[in-house]
Amino acid sequence: MTHPMYSASVPVFKQMLTALSELLKKAEVHVTEKNIDPNALLQGRLALDMFPLVRQVQIAADFAKGISSRLAGVDVPSWADTEVTFDDLQALIAKALAYIGAFEAAQFDGSESKEIVLRPGTPKEKKLAGTAYLYNYGLPQFFFHITTAYAILRHHGIEIGKRDYMGAY
Amino acid sequence: MTHPMYSASVPVFKQMLTALSELLKKAEVHVTEKNIDPNALLQGRLALDMFPLVRQVQIAADFAKGISSRLAGVDVPSWADTEVTFDDLQALIAKALAYIGAFEAAQFDGSESKEIVLRPGTPKEKKLAGTAYLYNYGLPQFFFHITTAYAILRHHGIEIGKRDYMGAY
């Protein structure tokens, strides 16, 4: 039996978060070798009114956690977003990977038609079926933050390439 | 009956390419109003060894075309990638939207287990099942180039936001 909602979410999050962890390791090596203040990169942005690298990583982890939880029908755990250092970000990614890794594919069965409510109780509340929530909302958001994290690193001279972004597939 | 392989591809490409078209319209208005050479933006990059905006749009359109074709089991049409201007890019996006819009959802049924060969006949040849091809290869690539196009625009001061990136969902 196939589990399309699982296959399109948890293994993809694992792939990309694992790749992001490797990207950040290369970035840390780079700033260490060049005697660069790590915060210059961790707080680096593509535009003044865009989030810095640390926040991009936090949001990517948050979407992996939130999408997986909502599709599986479990409460979304709240994490504090207190990360500051490369070590903190690695710990966050490891925590996210452990969290999503605990889901069984069968927990996602039937989530295609599950009603997911975005921003409940707010004027921007929006109801989506599970498929639209995953394909048209969740994945575009998740990939946005993964790619933007990569772009911040590339823009600031870290020697990485598309292969690093893609990870193992 | 649901068509997960179709739902996770064609409608997502439509959503994101339509949003990209709107992003580029805003960008063109911006450079026109500010008397900026449009090529400064069209050839803008996040790093010297990354592709410029024009190429990011071409590759995004290319993945939408290629992924849809391969999953549906039809030959991938070859397009010339000769775009230079904003009008060219709008025409390319319109062409891609018309092309993928012609697929029927049922053409994607069974593509989960279809073998897709990447870079056939080269040392980097890689065979993937349809699900891995879509979820773990195609979508990460497609979103990479859509997000990077967005990031180039944001980095160069175009007044757009996440809502514009997301489009209608």
Description of the structure:
Chains A, B: InterPro entries: DinB/YfiT-like, DUF1993. Chains A, B: It holds the Pfam family DUF1993. Chains A, B: It comes from Pararobbsia alpina. Two copies of one chain form a homodimer. By secondary structure, chain A is mostly helical. Chain A has one domain: Four Helix Bundle (Hemerythrin (Met), subunit A). In chain A, 59% of the residues lie in helices and 5% in strands. Chain A is built from seven helices and two strands. Chain A has helices at residues 4-7, 10-33, 38-42, 53-72, 86-101, 130-155, 162-166, and strands at 115-118, 126-129. Chain A has a two-stranded antiparallel ribbon with strand order 1-2. In chain A, helix 2 (10-33) packs antiparallel against helix 4, helix 2 runs antiparallel to helix 5 and helix 2 (10-33) packs parallel to helix 6 (130-155). Chain A is globular. The model of chain A has no long low-confidence stretch (mean pLDDT 97). The A-B interface holds A 2, 4-5, 7-8, 11-12, 15-16, 46-47, 50, 112, 128, 131-132, 134-137, 139-141, 143-144, 147-148, 150-151, 154-155, 157, 162, 165-166, 169 and B 2, 4-5, 7-8, 11-12, 15-16, 46-47, 50, 112, 128, 131-132, 134-137, 139-141, 143-144, 147-148, 150-151, 154-155, 157, 162, 165-166, 169.
